[in-house]
Amino acid sequence: MGLFLAILGAAIATFMAGIGSSIGVGKAGVAAAGTLAEEPSLFSKVLILMLLPATQGIYGLLVAFLTLQAVGVIGGGAGEISTVEGALYLAACLPIAFSGLFSAVHQGKCSVAGIQTVSKRTDTMGKALIIPAMVETYAILALLISILGINGIQALNL
């Protein structure tokens, strides 16, 4: 049961952060396509803004890899772990799962606004980039908590 809970945590981290990223990138992609239809020379600027929400999906995947490695699914040696230990791994995956989902969606909305700003005033790229980057801060904090949680469980030697 413990191994199942740990793998479930890894799956939830990947799934939820990935959903958020796909929604955020999708919203920004629609705005980018509209901008590029009128001004193709802005491709590199709108691409950067469009890709920002993708990072949360990467963070969820990283937490999943760390969890699967910690329990031995990656690298071999997966054995029985206690239900408590599995529940702890599941809990450690939840910060990036939920924060990744919500921050990527909202970062996508901020990226859309940034793309619209850049389409009207190309000299505002730096300012337009800072706004969605501020949302990223919370995904990074959640990533840090998830990593610290995983490492802390390993240190407990349950």
Separate helix tally: 5
What is the beta-strand fraction? under 5%
Please tally the β strands and state the result. Answer: 0
Low-confidence stretches: none
User: Which percent bin holds the helix content?
Assistant: over 70%
Instruction: Give the distance, in angstroms, between the N- and C-terminal Cα atoms.
Output: 15 Å
Query: What value does the Rg take, in angstroms?
Result: 18 Å
Question: What sequence of helices (H) and strands (E) makes up the elements?
Answer: HHHHH
Largest sheet: none
Mean pLDDT across the residues is: 93
Q: Shape, please?
A: elongated
Structural class: mainly alpha
Summarize the structure.
The chain has 158 residues and is mainly α. It has helices at residues 2-38, 43-51, 55-70, 83-120, 125-156.
Describe this structure in words.
It contains 5 helices and no strands. The protein has 158 residues and is an all-alpha fold. The chain is elongated.
Outline the fold blueprint.
Elements: H1 2-38, H2 43-51, H3 55-70, H4 83-120, H5 125-156
Structure characteristics:
158 residues
